[in-house]
Design a protein that fits this description.
The structure is a homodimer.
Chain A (H helix, E strand, L loop, with lengths): L3 H8 L3 H8 L7 H14 L5 H8 L4 E6 L5 H16 L3 E6 L4 H13 L4 E4 L3 H5 L10 E4 L9 E5 L1 H14 L5 E6 L2 H16 L7 E4 L3 H14 L5 E4 L2 H13 L9 E5 L13 E4 L2 H17 L7 E4 L2 E3 L10
Parallel strand pairs in A: 1-2, 1-3, 3-4, 4-5, 5-11, 6-7, 6-8, 8-9, 9-10
Antiparallel strand pairs in A: 10-12
Helix pairs in contact in A: 1-2, 1-3, 2-3, 5-12, 8-9, 10-11
Chain A binds a DNA duplex through helix 2 and helix 4.
Chain lengths: 329, 329
DNA sequence: GTGAAAGCGCTAACAT
DNA sequence: ATGTTAGCGCTTTCAC
């Protein structure tokens, strides 16, 4: 592996000059610059990023902490983050926290130890409650969930509003016995609040509300329970795509017709939503925008660590499809 | 940030002793070891991995290059790789190549520059044809696709065999006019070969075979074309989950009943396969095993760079579901 | 403009 | 068993 020394030798200059040229510093004559560039080319020299990172105390790596890449919402965000990072010459460490604050802590620390330039984090419940407790001291942007206890760049979607809108949509279409299944993560609680607000506004009461994990099986079990214990339920509101998938399985297994016998709605516009019949009414989260914004903010923060923290709230979009069309009275 | 110096000072020893303790080297008295550990604890000291990596010429980072994390096959593999890496104390850089050899090259080089311990790669078509041309010289394991021109640790599934089996399944169930849609990636060509072998064995000829991109829209377009140009087609064989999704959309749009009017099969046991009606007959790829094996092999290779390369072929599993049940004659 | 030299935080010879 | 020392490859003063 050629080092900066080899380049210096070949170009007949000192290593500091090579460094200057490669870092696009001023005060280098055109002649010397050309010679150095030539040598770099001929030797196919690439600066050792580890050495550079050690000395310069900065790097072109980012950390991305998601709860689980297998959740299509996070898959999409991860992909888009990687794209934006690539455009800016950064690579990204992908870390799955599994909603586990131990793992989150570990990875956060690991990222610091590896001297990443910044971290993009979807915080666990615990971390969101007391962010100061994490005691992180590096450029960080939080997404998907807001945090308490510390001012930090944050990107959210309007969970309450969008849930309100989605619940409203059900109500306006004649559904009367609407149960809800929400994930026990920060977004789940917010969406539940929006849901309940819409219900309260028209004096409806949910036959059942279940809080559960962000997993298909959990959604399946919850829906099963609802449909058995509250057979009059005519619609199920779910707070994310995995729970929605599970709920749909349960509905199908019980032979209930969507939307005639039961309406079904949720979040995230993932591929299967339009593959099933009828296709699913959901709130689409702008994953691309979230990611783009996250990378933008982290870059800004890296450049200017003192910039006052920003909070960006993006809008979810209601996509009405067959799973929630108007009830025949 | 505390450095090894601070620990040494606090413990009243030299930095080399601290280094020894932290690297679990022998020849340290219990007394000193305890004092060092104590100091580490009190200072909440964490070794700077960048410095360690620079000096020791090794790191606890891995590179994982997939063509697109959004493809559920790669999502699953990525997740499992990350899990295994985590267990072994490694972090992983996630890189999307988009089947683009330029991007692949860039990332490979980037990983080298960042001094990763090894790379787990799903090579592009180009790279698979002439792997030696990549000129990589670091621990690497290739998965999903075999490569020519160089001996390298490789993890595959039996694409030809499983495709043969899947095609055979269609044939045995009375399908006679079987078209195929294959992705123009190495696995696509292999699966096509298995498909054609099964067809040839019983003297059948595919009404149409289309090679296309690994995208839902591409599958949709291909299936549309097949169903319009070869209306007698009674089954479509697809080579992966995205194309299958697109094909299913086309079939639905044309109002054809699965499996009565058209059989439909493909690869990858992703979530929606059992969400749709009827559920999909597919070959399940053992993503967990692939990932586990990949991390195992890369660890072995890191420890012993001279070990002769291994090629592991895992078996895909035929999962028969409703989309391909026996035809009524 | 360019070079010499210090040093980022650590590991690994080499002394003792 | 422990300390001293020399770098890993680079950036960055500080001279000239």
């Amino acid at each position: 592996m050629n080092s900066i020394k080899d380049v210096a030798q070949k170009a007949g200059v000192s290593i500091s000059t090579v460094s200057r040229v490669l870092s696009n510093k001023p005060y280098v004559s055109d002649d010397v610059r050309d010679r150095v560039l030539q040598a770099v080319q001929e030797l196919d020299y690439r600066p050792n990023q580890v050495a550079r990172s050690l000395r310069a105390r900065q790097s072109t790596s980012l950390g991305l902490i998601v709860s689980d890449v297998c959740n299509p919402f996070f898959t999409d965000v991860s992909r888009a983050v990687e794209d934006c990072a690539y455009e800016k010459g950064y690579s990204v460490f992908l870390c799955n926290s599994d909603e586990n604050e131990k793992k989150e802590r570990f990875y956060l620390q690991e990222m610091i130890d590896k001297n990443v330039a910044g971290v993009i984090l979807s915080p666990t419940q615990k971390a969101s409650e007391n962010f100061a407790g994490l005691n992180v001291n590096l450029p960080i942007v939080v997404y998907d969930r807001s945090v308490k206890g510390m001012e930090v760049d944050t990107i959210l979607i309007d969970n309450r509003d969008s849930a309100f809108q989605l619940a409203n949509h059900l109500i306006e279409n004649g559904y009367k016995q609407i149960s809800g299944i929400f994930c026990n993560v920060p977004t789940g609680y917010e969406r539940r609040a929006g849901f309940e607000k819409a219900m309260a506004k028209v004096g409806l009461q949910a036959p059942q509300i279940i809080m559960t994990q962000t997993r298909i099986e959990a959604g399946y079990a919850a829906a099963k329970k609802i449909l058995e214990q509250s057979p009059l339920t005519d619609a199920i509101f779910t707070s994310d795509n995995l729970v929605l998938a599970g709920a749909m399985q349960a509905v199908n297994e019980l032979g209930l017709k969507i939307p005639d016998e039961i309406g079904l709605v949720g979040y995230d516009d993932v591929a299967w939503m339009t593959l099933v019949h009828p296709s699913m009414t959901i709130i689409r989260q702008p994953t691309d925008q979230i990611a783009r914004m996250a990378v933008d903010l982290i870059m800004q923060r890296i450049e200017n660590p003192k910039r006052p923290p920003l909070q960006v709230v993006l809008k979810g979009q209601l996509i009405v499809r067959g799973s929630s069309i108007r009830r025949v009275e």
